[in-house]
Every structure is written in structure tokens, then in C-alpha cells.
Amino acid sequence: MKAKEIVYICLDLAKASASDDSFFTEDHVLFLLKKYRAFLIKKEQDKEKTTGDIASEFEYQQICLDLERIDAEVCASGYKLRTTKPIPKILDGNKPRVHFKDYFADDMLTFVSRDKMKHVGSNPYMRNLIYASIGPDLHLYLTSSNPQFLYLKNIRMSAIFEDFDAASSMLCDDNGDSTSCDYLEAEFPIREYLVPSLIELVVKELTGAAYKPADSTNNANDDLSDMATWIRRNMKSGLQRQIES
After folding, report:
1. Is 0.85 surpassed by the pTM of this model?
2. How many whole angstroms from its chain centre is CA 55?
3. 184, 3 in Cβ contact below 8 A?
4. Start-to-end CA span in the chain (Å)
5. Phi, psi (deg, nearest 5) at residue 62
6. Where are the domains of the chain?
7. pLDDT tens, 212-245?
8. What is the 3-state secondary structure (H, E, C) of the chain?
9. What is the b/e burial string over 175-211, where b = at least 16 CB atoms within 10 angstroms of the residue's CB?
10. Tens digit of pLDDT for each residue in 178-214?
11. Among candidates 99, 136, 97, which has minimal Cα distance to 114?
12. Based on C-alpha coordinates, what's the Rg of the chain?
């Protein structure tokens, strides 16, 4: 299901697309979609840990990343390569998969934490492994004792990105060809059976954002923002009944 389909369903259900008075935008919906997508995914992952089910692949996106060398003077810690662009934010608690063209190749890159990256390479039996870690600047850094790794030009990363819209501009297929697109045109990275719950949560948030008396006049003016108009329209009959009683 494309992201734009979910966005416009949310807007329609929130009565946003049916009125010129609407102040909800695609950006409003996108913010809430990211928020509640993360919530639902974490909830499902907690359930999988309990039941032992296999994690879903629907939330993963594959991006291609170009690499550049780092001068020794710039990188005193010994890192030799890094991505030319920062990595989109990854959902907390989820480990990315960093790999070459063949995901099942024996020479997979080993992703480690930022702190562990400082100490890799000391084991003589694992010195030729290529280690990767995300630095404070959100770039992916690579290091290895094998000098051949310096000839790497690009790598791939598969991850559950919290900023799935930012990842959409970096998507690539299994051949390494770019499939980047506007996030609205991309497939929305979530399991199909979670879509109804996601839409329900977003619409509830949109419609519950403010107290909304009925605006029956579609005149391209936000009459409800005028409190005097609202009181006049909705309270006069009630006050009149009190006076008459």
C-alpha cells in the first residue's frame, strides 16, 4: 500500500479533504504516521519476543550508501571509510543490517555499537573483518585491518527506519539501482494488517486535537476560530431558555 493512500485516507476520515476550512496538511499526517507506526511496530516486536514468532520484513527498507575515504589526520581513531550522507534515523532498539550486493555472502559487514567500534580489530582471528558503526554525526563509519576494504565504493543497509520518508530518497533494488522517490509514492513500510489500526490512531489524534463544534457553512473561512461567532451560533438558544424559565 502506497504512503499516499494511507495519508489521504486519514485526511478523508478526518473530514479534512472535504472542507476548505481544513487546517490539517500532509505534513500533519506524516508526523503522526511516523509516531504511531513506531508505536505499533514496537508493540508487535514485544509480542514476537514473547511468542517466538519470526519478525516481519515489511518494515524494512533497503538503501544504498556511497563511501568516501577519511584522511588519517581527520580520523585519529583509525576509521578509514564513511558514508557520504548521514543515515536516516533508525527505530530505537533495532539493529541495521549492513551488507554488500549479495546479502548472503560470507564477507558480511559486522555492525557494532559506537562504543565497541573503538576496540575492534584486536583479535588476530578477526582482524580482516569489516566493522561498521553509526557515528555521532549519523554517518556510517567502516574500519578493518584488511587494506582491500579501502576500495569499497558503496554498501547497502537494511533497517527499520523511523524516518521512513527520508529513507525513501535513498532506496535501491537488489541490483543496486536507485529506486528513490517521493515518500508519498513509496510503499508504506508496515505490515498490511496493522494499517487499519494505524489509520484509526492517526484519525483519532487529528479529530481529537481540538474541540470542534460543527461548522456547517463551507465558506473558506475558519468561523470556529471566532469565539464570539461560535457563542452566538451555539449558545443563544440555551441562554434564551434559561431566561424564559
Report:
1. no
2. 18
3. yes
4. 58
5. -105, 125
6. 1-56+191-212, 61-189, 213-245
7. 555 556 665 655 455 455 445 554 445 555 555 5
8. CEHHHHHHHHHHHCCCCCCCCCCCCHHHHHHHHHHHHHHHHHHHHHHHHHHCCCCCCCCCEEEEEEEEECCCCCCCCCCCEEECCCCCCECCCCCCEEECCCCCCCCCCEECCCCHHHHCCCCCCCCCCCEEEECCCCCEEEECCCHHHHHCCEEEEEECECCHHHHHCCEECCCCCECCCCHHHCECCCCHHHHHHHHHHHHHHHHCCCCCCCCCCCCCCCHHHCHHHHHHHHHHHHHHHHHHC
9. eeeeeeeebbebebbbeeebbeebbebbbebbeeeee
10. 888 888 888 899 999 999 999 999 998 888 754 455 5
11. 136
12. 25
> Hey, what's the cell of 109?
559487514
Amino acid at 37: R
87 touches 157 (CB < 8 A): yes
What the block records as the C-alpha cell of 83 is 558514508
